[in-house]
Specification:
The chain has about 575 residues and is of the alpha/beta class. It has 23 helices and 14 strands. The longest helix has 20 residues.
Length: about 575
């Protein structure tokens, strides 16, 4: 028999009058108190049960019920304790210890993570001494809540509770480099009159230098590099650095002096730790890197402690800069790509403001899809459906989009379960060719005007002929787009070939643009360039489409491209 039922039956029996004298009630009550003091809660419950019945000769009923519930609570029988406290409130509503009953009822709700019920019970307590105790317990319970959404709902229900306001601010501070969280944090700080510096580590005033030192922390793996020609395992790092060096030379000719220092991390956290302890890096003006996730926390903590800006060129994961006010991403985050994709869909969908979202099983895909859908709702796009697909489940795309309901005389489909031209766009948050190829093929079969939005990574796979991309007008979010016909790129490529005897890779171009951007930012805004970044809508790129860090720590500039006459072109904003 379940424990809750057993103890509920005990309560029912306990509340029945069983013909005991006042002396018996007293004896049972004090026996129970002795057992309770000794921590023998099961025996205490048996004794208190006998002292509970409502009787004219029993002055111990309220206290026996209270301690019966307390004994149950101490043994983890929360349901029994809750039922007993509630029965006590019903039978003795004017009992002078009712504030203590509510205190423990609130604790039971909090223990069971029923936070709103707990707060509701506690809010009815007027006893000053108990209210003071509640504040401490409230902090212990609510500080375990990690998602700011729950705390936001609490501030809406209890708008004048400063503790909840502080906890919400602390929770939002953990996402301070996410734009919506940052904006909400600013609002919370103002509303509750909080100290901004307690939640946001702002940069000191900027200053200028003749020469800026930049430390590159990457796994160059010098000890294991083989001298023979051919691609190395870490070729992308080597290409990035060659592009950076070329930019340093270009910048020098325009009067911008950078001292570029390369440090080999050897893909060892011990090496990173040792490097970060050197005076050279403690006094550097900007850090580029590191590459691997296990090294990242060490560098971000070092950056925050020493107030040194860090720029990360590869990642789209906003968590890599976390709460570090000195950490910046050259790339847009997955959240930003999803949000910008929704804005693009709203502006460019041909007819209808309705959309289907398909996404894969990775965390990245889920983040892209969630950010897209959140923004879509804000800009007036109706999400018809959102489907998380495994590779095996990708056939659902064809079923949903191409199940025909009508055919013409040539037995070709003329309408479908999802009616033709009833949908404005499809957002595909996945790099899996099995998923996006089925979407493209299905839209081709339908022959209607659905806008498909995907990712530049689709171009790295030969799963589909690029002609289909052009015929269907597929649009790709392309943060790394470079116009290779532009004068700047042609000048860079010419110089790279002259220096290295071969055409530059995309990583060499990334390194060049990164260093041109960093060098001009340091020259124009000084060591702590972030204050100026907040005020600039768009900062120029030199090969790329530019950068924007308005109230953010990831690049807000996301170009969207499509094929036009066989060439990728940026789709102009509407």
């Amino acid at each position: 028999m379940p424990k809750r039922l057993i103890f509920s039956l005990l309560i029912v029996v306990g509340f029945q009058t069983i013909g005991l004298s006042q002396t018996d009630f007293k004896q049972y009550y004090f026996n129970g108190k002795n057992f309770f003091r000794e921590g023998k809660y099961n025996l205490a419950m048996e004794s208190f049960k006998a002292a509970i019945p409502y009787d004219a000769n029993n002055p111990f009923s309220e206290y026996a019920s209270f301690y019966f519930a307390m004994s149950a609570y101490q043994q983890g029988f929360h349901a029994v304790a809750r039922d007993t406290f509630n029965q006590l409130k019903k039978l003795y509503p004017k009992w002078d210890k009712m504030s203590e009953v509510d205190f423990w009822l609130g604790r039971i709700h909090m223990d069971d993570k029923e936070y709103f019920q707990g707060l509701k019970v506690w809010s009815s307590i007027t006893n000053p001494a108990i209210k003071k105790d509640i504040d401490g317990y409230k902090y212990n319970y609510l500080s375990t809540i990690e998602d700011p959404e729950t705390l936001t709902m609490m501030t809406e229900e209890y708008p004048n509770d400063p503790l909840i306001g502080k906890l919400l601010a602390a929770s939002l501070a953990k996402r301070v480099n996410d734009i919506p969280s940052r904006n909400q944090l600013d609002d919370v700080i103002r509303k509750y009159h909080l100290e901004r510096s307690d939640y946001i580590h702002e940069a000191p005033p900027s200053y200028f230098k003749e020469v800026y030192s930049i430390s590159v922390l990457y796994p160059f793996m010098l000890s294991s590099l083989e001298p023979r020609p051919g691609k190395k395992k870490n070729q992308l790092i080597l290409d990035l650095y060659e592009g950076m060096k070329l930019a340093v030379d270009t910048l020098k000719k325009s009067g911008i002096n950078l001292d570029l220092r390369a440090y080999d991390t050897e893909r060892k956290t011990a090496t990173i730790t040792r490097l970060l302890d050197t005076e050279e890096i403690k006094n550097t003006d900007l850090i580029i890197g590191p590459f691997f996730p296990e090294e990242n926390k060490l560098v971000q903590d070092f950056s925050l402690k020493n107030k040194i800006n860090v720029l990360k060129p590869f990642t789209n994961n906003l968590e890599t800069v976390g709460i570090n006010e000195f950490g910046f991403m050259l790339q847009p985050s997955y959240e930003t790509i999803g949000r910008k994709s929704a804005e693009f869909a709203a502006a460019h969908s041909r007819r209808r403001k309705s959309c289907i979202v398909y996404y894969g099983t990775s965390r990245k895909d889920s983040t892209l899809a969630a950010s897209f859908m959140l923004k879509a709702k804000e800009v007036g796009i109706k999400i018809v459906s959102a489907q998380r697909l495994t590779r095996e489940g990708a056939t659902k795309i064809i079923t949903r989009l191409t199940t025909a309901t009508e055919y013409d005389k040539n037995k070709l489909p003329v309408n479908f379960t999802l009616k033709r031209d009833s949908l404005g766009s499809i957002y595909v948050a996945s790099d899996d060719p099995l998923i996006y190829s089925k979407v493209i093929s299905s839209v081709e079969t339908r022959g209607d005007s659905i806008l498909v939005i995907g990712s530049e990574s689709w171009l790295e796979n030969n799963a589909m002929d690029f002609d289909k991309f052009q015929l269907q007008g597929i649009v790709l979010a392309s943060p790394n787009y470079i116009d290779t016909s532009s004068p700047h790129y042609l000048a860079f490529a010419k110089k790279y070939v002259r220096t290295h005897g071969q055409a530059p890779s995309s990583y060499a171009a990334l390194g060049y643009d990164l260093m041109m951007f960093a060098g001009h930012s340091l020259k124009k805004y000084g060591v702590y360039f972030q204050d100026a970044f907040v005020k600039e809508t768009l900062l120029p790129g030199y090969l790329s489409q530019g950068y924007s860090y308005e109230n953010s720590h990831d690049n807000q500039q996301v170009p969207f491209v499509k094929f036009v006459e066989g060439e990728l072109k940026v789709v102009k904003k509407k």
